Amino acid sequence: MEGATTLSIAQFSLIYLLLLIVLFIMKRSKIDKTKLLIIASVRMTVQLVLIGFILQYIFANPNPLITTLFLAVMLSFSIHRVFSTRKDLNKKFKVIIAISLSISGLAVLMYFVGVVVGKNIFNPQYTIPLAGMIIGNAMTGLTIGLKTFMESIKLQRRKIDTLTNLGVSPKNILKPFVNNALEASLLPTLNSMLGMGIIFLPGMMTGQILAGTLPTTAIMYQIAIYIAICTSVCLSVFCSLNFGYRTLYNEKNQFIG
Amino acid sequence: MNNILFQTENLNYNNMIDFADLKIEKGKVNFIIGESGCGKSTLLRLFNAFLSPARGSVRYNGQLLEEFDTLKLRKEVSLVAQEVFLFDASISDNFKQFYEYRELDVPSDEIISKMLKVCCLDFPLDKDCTSMSGGERQRVYTAIFLSFNPKVIMLDEPTSALDEKNSISVISNILEYCKENNIEVIIVTHDMAVRQQFDGNIISLERCVQ
User: Fold this and answer.
1) Which residue of B has its CA nearest to A170?
2) How far apart are CA B77 and CA B47, in angstroms?
3) In order of start, what are the domains of chain B with their CATH numbers?
4) Best interface-test mutation with B: which of A157, A160, A163, A164 has the largest number of B CBs within 10 A?
5) Are A128 and A55 spatial neighbours (Cβ–Cβ below 8 Å)?
6) Which pLDDT tens digit goes with each residue over B27-84?
7) How far is residue A217's CA from residue A222's CA, in Å, rounded to a whole number?
8) Contact criterion met (CB < 8 Å) for A254 and B49
9) B192 has pLDDT over 60
10) What is the ipTM of this complex?
């Protein structure tokens, strides 16, 4: 099969013309987001150009230390993202989330690269892109799970207080909230698994096919990555919430928020 | 000492509310009165360890509150708060869900109807709680708490959503039920009519907010 045609800069620049259509429609529809569109496009371009050069360098000079460092940066960035969306988490809860996301993400990644693909887990060409997908999706799932959990316990304060006054243990009060949030965090991944192949060809598979991989190989990677994503979302949200909810009350069974 | 249900000493909550030392006696209806913001609801929450004091102590049956297992204590000293919560379901489903949380068998329909009658409600058990008025919901809520037969029931403004006539019949029924079942009663109320209608201890909280 033929590999992806290398794009010249001039050819590549042509794709930006499409943004003019978006700009035109935005102007016509009085959507005041033209500035955001420009900033978003510029940021995306700059960020990806940078990462493109960095990855090219790392792949050319594989070094376990750099791969590890890359993973550490990825993890801290995603943990930071999760925290920045929620200002209402206590310190212990945050530590639990950081540990859960790191361990779940890395464990699934190691299994994927080391056991399923059978490569050295410090091999940057496999580890880095797969880590990005696994950790990135775990981060999104965690954000949804935490949002659902924290918002529903705030909304249902009366229910929590009533059950507390009836002598129900905080564990029994909060467990249903934990389970609901876990379900909410898994739904987007499960939905895309349902539609996959029929409604859309997922990005990773498209990329591999363009790069010349046989579609049958590409689908195996795609299926594998989705199962890995689903597992890492499930594990990180499950661990974060199941250990985290215990930080919301004290030994006297009083809620401390 | 034996006839003292609750006794407080130098009680302070959150370094904001100081409570004058007070005693709540057994075998009598105890009315707690006072201006709004003087800590009536807070006091009840300190009694069932929903909250902890910053300083001072509460004794329940002569024993310091800290020595109790809080979950057992709250089952024994039941607080019916002002903020009503019911599941968006029928009356019988509400009983069912609360009893499941308490890990107890759901009471029979006769018992549920009896508890509703104590609270002056005459509804079919499949009536949806979401379509009820505030006062009706408040009484279903109280009926559920009463049905667990705690040793002490603390009612925080139990008739805030009722008119005077209804308030008096509800309280009178509840008091009768509690007397028959040896349940001690503490009622927080600002309702003069209710208080004057019934014999009991009156504990007046001074405004001691710092």
Assistant:
1) B71
2) 8
3) 4-204 (3.40.50.300)
4) A164
5) yes
6) 999 999 988 888 999 999 999 999 999 999 999 999 999 999 999 999 999 999 999 9
7) 9
8) yes
9) yes
10) 0.95
